[in-house]
Amino acid sequence: MAKIIAAALLYTFLALPALAQQAGRIDLIDGEVRIINAKAQTRIAQLGEAVNQGDTVTTGRNGEAHLKMDDGGMLAIRPDARLSIVKFQSKGHDSDVSLVSLARGALRAISGWIGRRSPDRVNIQTPTATIGIRGTDHEVVVVPEGSSEGQPGTYDKVNAGGTRLSSERGVVDVSPGQAAFASPTAAPTVLATIPEDIFKPSRNDSRLEGLNERLQRSPESRSFIVPAPPGGRGAAGAGKSGGVQIQGNTRINAAAKDTNAIAIGQDNEVGNSIGTIGGK
Question: Is the pTM here over 0.85, yes or no?
Answer without folding.
Answer: no
